[in-house]
Amino acid sequence: MTTHLDTAVEAPSAAHQASPATYSRLVLPAMAANVFLLSLIQTIVVPALPLIGQQLHTSATTVGWVATATMLAASAVTPLFGRLGDVFGARRVILAALVLTLAGSLIASLGDSIGVLIAGRALQGASFGLFPLAISVIRHELPPAKIAHGMSIAASALGFGSGFALVATGVLTQNGGDYHRIFWLTLAASAAMLVLSALVLPRRAGLGGRVDYLGAVVLGAGLVALLLPVSQGHEWGWGSTPTISLFITAPVILLAFGFLQARTAQPLIKLSVLGHREVLATNLASLFVGFAMFSVFLGATYFVQSPEALTGYGFSASVLRTSVLYMLPGTLLSIPLGPIAGRYVVRHGARLVLLGAAVLGVASMASLALLHADTAEFIVALVAGNAAIAVAYAAMPALLFQHVAPQDTGVANSVNSIMRTVGGAIGSAVVITILAASATTFATPSGPVALPTEGAYVTAFVLGGIAFALAALLAAFGLRRDQH
């Protein structure tokens, strides 16, 4: 079945048809590298938050803003950057986003106070806009036969970047190493991406139109009102006045955004596009996979470091051993998975690829929940979980590509990126809340230590499996079969 959106895809403007004469083989690697950067920046501070708190003598509540600031900034700028790229051309917006990311990395790497660090992390939130911009570049610059494959390769860098970030943090901060090292890494990566993008990306005009800046402000406010209590609720208290107030405020603002878009001639986001069956199913799947990703990464990272002598579970792994032995195999596997997933998307359709990835994710989470006493079994399950995440995200841009017109590519992928961010925020909050709520105090020579119960980890892994299962149901029944 072909929709009006599909027809729009089949006949993009001649000015934006990539041709062999203008196609640069470096465009795809450059865009995949940019996606890797944003994923690296998103994840790299997560395992380092306790260390940052210790070295800056800051409470866990305050240091949590190091992660929250980036997420809130990202929710505000991602849809705006996507639309700016569609209207004015992706190259200049990508370079602007990289300059902001570079500035944020520099501030974070040099600052010695929590306030400066939070400010730097907020600027790093500009990197989240790189994903929809990269997908837009691929759509407009690659030959038609290579677009779906290229999108899959770039999107799979999300999983690789997150896994690499966990490994890098473990290596750079082992034995209480200076937390500034992780920001030196993001600084170097941001500088490299800026130079690469400036050299590789062609100077092309955008598709034209206007930018709904008022809509961007309202949407950003609504997303901040939603994500702030999700990320801070476990510290504020889920029943506290700020948490409840923001949860009530968020849907009101987002509803107002919907009314505003319906009455705007050139809206930031076309609600009719978001309501399209395949687009809606893909975005919901992105949310569920985002939730599952943090169930895998946070749950597994904390589990393997649990002192087995005290708790009766875990592997008493150091931060370095956690990174190299448990996280690195899955990260390395993510590298070839992008091209492989891309080929399957072209041959069999993105729907089946997403379905297969989600089913693999369910199996991996079931294994983590039931078979976590043996190191080898645990590593295999983690590798499978990493593969499921990388392949699932590789399929999503191709699904959107089939049902979104060229001028809406950036914004459509921005919404998908936001859904991933929301899912990850919810997953992180749920896992942390479950683990904290079950904490039991153990006596050690250095004093009492509060550690989660084994059942709390099982619950976290089961919830990750449920999230993957919901993504599988969306792929099986929410998407039509004629996707390739």
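the 2nd protein, sequnce then structure:
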Amino acid sequence: MDETYQIYVNRVAQLTIQATYQTQLQNIQKSPKFEQGKAISFPGYTVLTPPQIDDTLNREFYYQLQAIQQQLIEQIEPGMLTWLPPESFHLTLADLIWDKRYQEAVQDHPSFDDKIKACIQHSFDNYPKINLENNEPKWQLFGLLIFPRALVVGLVPCDELSYEKIIQLRRAIYQNMDLIGLGIQQQYHFTAHITLGYFSENISNLNRDKFASILTNFNDKWLETEPQVLKIREVELRKFEDMITYLPSDDNPKIEL
């Protein structure tokens, strides 16, 4: 399902232009993951880079991302988004299972948590067999993107090898037959992003033209500055309770890329 390197870069670039913003803003919705600015229960599993609070490798990158979020908070009308705490910032590499599907899976398989950990460990064990150079993938911040329920920063690979490493990891995960047997399948094209905030119940009052202009101005400024780069050295499976709480554990499967 995932695209070639060049198709991916072209698609993400298309998502950062003002005309695309104008179209997407017609379809934004309140996120069901938050109520009155607070995260609600939304349990599940994901494969991600360590959240900002645990990531010592990318401190400068996340410092800059936090500054960007703060500037957006100052420019966007209050109450339009529920902004995520910077310590929860992370890059999701493979969505797995969440919310009602996760709750149903636990009911059907009482040892589901152990099974999903075993499946992901198996995928990680198979990944090193792929003959790729031993360099950590690097992805650069490219621009702000509008998702149906969230405002995010999009990332593109710094080179084709960085892209291929992540796509091969996703294949090792999503083509794992034991994981498919648990009812987990790939559902989306990969769009590398870090979420800054989710749209709130107040979006009916959003000035969409102004919002699109703010995002475009941010993207124009980034074209004139040194790209901010996220280094992806370690990836792990984590359980989450909601969209700000990703639980560390000594028995979470991990892999160094």
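Helices lie at 5-14, 18-24, 59-75, 99-108, 112-126, 160-174, 177-181, 208-222. The first strand starts at residue 34 and ends at 35.
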